[in-house]
Design a protein that fits this description.
Number of strands: 17
Distance between the termini: 27 Å
Structural class: alpha/beta
CATH class of the largest domain: Alpha Beta
Shape: globular
CATH architecture of the largest domain: Alpha-Beta Complex
Number of helices: 11
Number of domains: 2
Helix content: 10-25%
Order of helices and strands: EEEHEEEHEEEHHEHEHEHEHEEHEHEH
């Protein structure tokens, strides 16, 4: 007989969870494992709200097991460490992103690409090594193997820095991997939401000339004046799109809804790269002859390994990069999810967990 979330482990925990496809989140008492030799336990201070949290809560991807406590942009302060932990001590500020486990022995793990490990364990909603479910950061505390815990830079704000653990690394990693991090390059960013606005900030910090593509003309002022992008293109305007032909070294596409990509491929220079980081499940329409004349590349990318994520946090701290956030109490989370669905946030909700989550 399966154990209940409250009795799986010895340490009582408290958070917010969805219990069915309505996605409505409400208080849940559950449990976390005792601190192992290599574990770090920390009090959750802040947790960002990602679109993935909404998809999982509503089982929109078809593999949610309830109850589910979302949250994988988690920042906190260490309260306990295992006897073999070397990197952290009580009182340290730390973060946990999208992963809490991987096999640590495959080719990807050996290359610090735990994010591509076939046996990776996401931070919430999946089975851990012991067969119990993982629970995310909409909760009072977390426990994780120290390998998957990140050192928080001293001068990086905790609240507005939290979304970097997903939105940040998701856009930083492809810029770095595909060589789109060199000064003077011309980079496009498709979509100006939670991922897109951070992509603009990283590309600008790398010294790029940045063009934002958006279906929403009203975002022009924010893109150019607020985020310091160099150009703004309304992607539904064919004339504006044609003006970008053969002009960009790379494009980071952050949109999670189905959209035309042939005009984006057309915007690439010879050897240009179009990289998708949004979760689009519908097939794209693309011909080989739109790629071959310019030796263009269409690729995908997903978060980053732990080494690269730490590098990203340190780079963000050095360059003053944070997400633009709206800080909310946890009892506002359902309203925030509804607003996020309507893109009614600039640009990321972050839950003030420590100051608003009260255990019964």
């Amino acid at each position: 007989m399966a154990k209940s979330p409250e009795s799986e482990h010895p340490i009582k925990a408290f958070g917010y969870a969805a219990r069915d496809v309505s996605g409505v989140l409400s208080p849940l008492t559950f449990s976390r494992r005792a601190t192992g030799d290599k574990d770090v336990r920390f009090k959750v201070l802040y947790c960002g709200i990602c679109h993935s949290d909404l998809h999982f809560s509503k089982n929109e991807w078809g593999f949610t097991t309830y109850p589910i406590t979302p949250g994988h942009e988690i920042v906190g302060v260490v309260t306990e460490v295992g006897s073999k932990v070397k990197k952290f001590k009580v009182g340290d500020k730390v973060g946990v992103g999208c992963l809490v486990g991987s096999c640590r022995s495959c080719e990807n793990c050996a290359k610090d690409l735990e994010n591509y490990c076939p046996q990776q364990i996401p931070t919430y909603g999946f089975l851990h090594y012991d067969g119990t479910r993982t629970y995310g950061g909409y909760s009072d505390h977390m426990v994780s193997d120290e390998h998957f815990v990140l050192r928080w830079p001293e001068n990086l704000p905790l609240d507005s820095g939290a979304p970097l653990l997903c939105a940040g690394i998701t856009t930083y990693s492809p810029l770095r991997h595909f060589g789109l991090d060199k000064p003077g390059l011309k980079i496009g960013v498709v979509g100006l939401g939670g991922l897109g606005h951070v992509a603009v900030k990283f590309a600008k910090a790398f010294g790029a000339e940045v063009t934002v593509f958006s279906t929403t003309p009203s975002k022009k002022q924010e893109a150019l004046e607020g985020l310091k992008a160099d150009h703004f293109i309304v992607s539904k305007d064919q004339e504006q799109m044609q003006s970008t032909a053969n002009s960009l070294d790379g494009i980071i596409d952050t949109v999670s809804a189905s959209h035309p990509i042939a005009p984006l491929v057309n915007a690439l220079k010879t050897d240009g790269k179009l990289v998708f980081v949004g979760a689009v499940f519908e097939p794209f329409e693309l011909t080989a002859v739109s790629l071959s004349p310019g030796r263009k590349t269409v690729a995908g990318s997903a978060i980053g390994g732990l080494k690269e994520t730490q590098e990203m946090l340190d780079f963000a701290a050095k360059h003053g990069i944070t997400a633009d956030i709206e800080l909310i109490p946890i009892d506002y989370v359902n309203t925030a999810m509804g607003r996020m669905l309507k893109s009614d946030v600039k640009y990321r909700f972050v839950i003030d967990v420590a100051n608003s989550l009260k255990a019964p």
